[in-house]
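Need tokens for this chain, all 335 residues.
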Amino acid sequence: MRIAMLAPISWRTPPRHYGPWELVTSLLTEALIARGVDITLFATLDSQTAGKLAGVCPAPYSEDPSIDAKVWEILHVANVFEHAAEFDLIHNQADFVPLAFSRLVETPVVTTIHGFSSERILPAFRAYEDRVHFVAISNADRRPDLRYAATIHHGIRPEDFPFEPHGGEDLLYFGRIHPDKGTAEAISAARRAGRRLVMAGIVQDQEYHHSHVAPAIDNRSVVYLGPVGGATRVNTLGSACALLHLINFNEPFGLSVVEALACGTPVIASDRGSMRELVDHGVTGFLVNSVDDAVEAIGRIGEIDRAACRAVVTARFSVDRMADRYLELYRSLLA
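Here are the structure tokens for all 335 residues:
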């Protein structure tokens, strides 16, 4: 089985710190290679893989301002489809632009939909649903008027996130600084609960950061680490008493939620989007509907068994489970 894995080019695959789409693409690619699948990863030329690396874009456009996103994305996608005949299947992880190339080749195309950035992109998916096999990353993110081949949750390598049985006293906010992610709500909840809040992630909305986040950062009650990766990422996730994930949008998945749970850190999340599929209320954390609810949940966090958090990830959100599901889908489509 020869697979062309089409990664986004916003960040390197795998990312150095932030880049959830690229991270999932890398995890899946390497797990499939370990299963003996012949995979060519189409990604930025500084990307890393145990398989074959192909690409035209020299660096990620979110890291190198000289890279024009629109120009290099088109060149990147075109490169994959110009080589389509060399593969049994193309797996697109790079949003809707590749859909427009799908009828120009005979090779089957699978597209993992990592979420819909706007209602305005839906016509592109509807126009090609008879040609491309769509995969949802949660049942919550399925559109009722769109045809899907499967729902496959993201998976992580649990061994990359050592279990921390005790955690610490600090609360954690882990994600991009943006109104959607509930940064200000996390600050408010931590302050009202009398707990220190550690924050990590890229600043995606500068105005929001300047107005609602930066004034609270005093390196005592609120500490901001910036984007973190590697051992710092793991230590930050594992050393918290709870992750505050008070999102203001219907998040399609939430890798940081699963990563925190893998370390044994319970999650207090807004009850919307995919959170009911990730957090078991009262078992691995709490689902809340307001900052008031979050403050109450913080007071109850000692009720959560950190070992139960870890067990859920190994059973339901491992990279092996994700890879097996995708391999099953590939085989059914090629059959």
